[in-house]
């Protein structure tokens, strides 16, 4: 395993993963393939720009020619697929791109993996494929899939195609199911970066419904390390949950952000709930822990660091918020 194709790495998790891998494995070469949707941002990859073992190719994973071109220059023995449409709210208003990228795009990559005979194909998936989990239960890898949103359904679809390529063609597929991530370089449409940046700008924090939904939060670098462990020590055909074990109510996260930014309670605004909104996610991570992984960061410490990062990197998010984002935000939140 030396020549990696990492797709979708101009986004949040993929860019952190590329930085982690280049640093940890001095003999690995990484080609990033990214379509540069609204969520793709080359600023996220600036920290690896000068590394001679990194190259960037712009292209769509759903386009077989773009995939072949990305691989042609230096070959590829491993594919790690982060590329996806990733935001639940956007999947509710515009599901089309989710099916194209998160299902068909995975199929195109699997076809490439099959013809290349790669050593590993790692499909980055999500705990949302399990759907709503009633307390005190936690999801195990063998549990039924029950996705609620077009986003989670498309991710479940991508996983199932990947699984079929393992069973039918022996493509050495490994699937990881991560829980909700937070950390630097996250597009400010997701709860934590949206609320931190809104608070820093003295704007309202729009809490959906009663704010009593629960997510299991993981710091992005713990997720990256979990994917690394599954990639190197996991067994083809297997699925690994990657969860932080930090279950929090959305309203408690909101309060913590106000406290860390020193802003008043009056910024909280309860707004109409998201349709099909899952109440709770919870992952059992015994299987991945059995491979020697465990999260390194505590929630409190990593949240403090995350708030500091957004407050020190205003240029990064202010550039985003002044673009296409403003239109999305108005559509999503005005008169909600
Ligand atoms: P993101 O939205 O920040 O980044 C997605 C990246 O994929 C962007 O750079 C975008 O340009 C690229 N992309 C989109 N469509 C593409 C296409 N057709 N071809 C090539 N590139 C394309 O997403 P993220 O939060 O970094 O998530 C990365 C992966 O991790 C996704 O597969 C997501 O489902 C999964 N995941 C995310 C979380 C989370 O909390 N963010 C949790 C678990 C799993
Ligand atoms: P999000 O970050 O969109 O991740 P996901 O929906 O994939 O879990 O949302 C996390 C939780 O925060 C989810 O329960 C929805 C809620 N939420 C809000 O209350 N307000 C918001 O503006 C956003 C974006 C999310």
Please provide a written account of the structure.
The protein has 336 residues and is an alpha/beta fold. It has a domain at 3-181 and 218-242: Rossmann fold (3-Layer(aba) Sandwich). It contains 12 helices and 12 strands. It has helices at 12-24, 64-72, 88-93, 96-116, 150-169, 191-200, 220-233, 250-261, 286-289, 299-312, 314-321, 324-333; strands at 3-7, 29-34, 54-58, 78-81, 120-126, 173-178, 180-182, 205-208, 214-219, 239-242, 247-249, 268-271. The strands form 3 sheets. A 7-stranded parallel beta sheet has the order 3-2-1-4-5-6-10, with helices on both faces. A 3-stranded mixed beta sheet has the order 7-9-11. The chain has a two-stranded parallel ribbon with strand order 8-12. Helix 4 (96-116) packs parallel to helix 5 (150-169) and helix 6 runs parallel beside helix 8. The radius of gyration is 19 Å and the shape is globular. The N and C termini lie far apart (49 Å). Residues 88, 128, 180, 190-191, 194, 206-208, 213, 215, 250 line the site of thymidine-5'-diphosphate.
């Amino acid at each position: 395993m030396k020549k990696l194709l990492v797709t979708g790495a101009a986004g949040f998790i993929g860019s952190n993963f590329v930085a982690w891998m280049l640093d940890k494995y001095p003999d690995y070469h990484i080609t990033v393939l990214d379509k540069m949707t609204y969520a793709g941002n080359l600023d996220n990859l600036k920290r690896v720009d000068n590394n001679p073992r990194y190259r960037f190719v712009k292209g769509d994973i759903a386009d077989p020619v773009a995939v072949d071109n990305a691989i042609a220059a230096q070959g590829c023995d491993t594919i790690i697929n982060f590329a996806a449409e990733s935001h639940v709210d956007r999947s509710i208003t515009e599901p089309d791109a989710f099916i194209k990228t998160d299902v068909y795009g995975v199929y195109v990559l699997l076809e490439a993996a099959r013809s290349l005979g790669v050593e590993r194909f790692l499909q980055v998936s999500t705990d949302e494929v399990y759907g709503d989990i009633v307390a005190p239960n936690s999801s195990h890898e063998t549990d039924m899939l029950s996705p609620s949103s077009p986003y989670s359904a498309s991710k479940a679809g991508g996983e199932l195609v990947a699984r079929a390529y393992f069973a039918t063609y022996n493509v050495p597929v490994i699937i990881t199911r991560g829980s909700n991530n937070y950390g630097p370089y996250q597009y400010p449409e997701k709860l934590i970066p949206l609320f931190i940046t809104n608070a820093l700008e003295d704007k309202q924090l729009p809490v959906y419904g009663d704010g009593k939904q629960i997510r299991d939060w993981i710091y992005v670098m713990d997720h990256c390390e979990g994917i690394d462990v599954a990639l190197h020590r996991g067994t083809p055909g297997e699925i690994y949950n990657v969860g932080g074990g930090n279950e929090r109510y959305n309203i408690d996260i909101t309060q913590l952000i106000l406290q860390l930014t020193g802003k008043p309670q009056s910024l909280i605004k309860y707004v109409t709930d998201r349709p099909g909104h899952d109440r709770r996610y919870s992952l059992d991570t015994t299987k991945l822990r059995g491979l020697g992984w465990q999260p390194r960061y505590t929630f409190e410490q990593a949240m403090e660091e995350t708030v500091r990062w957004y407050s020190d990197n205003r240029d990064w998010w202010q550039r985003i918020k002044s673009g296409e984002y403003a239109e999305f935000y108005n559509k999503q939140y005005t008169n909600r």
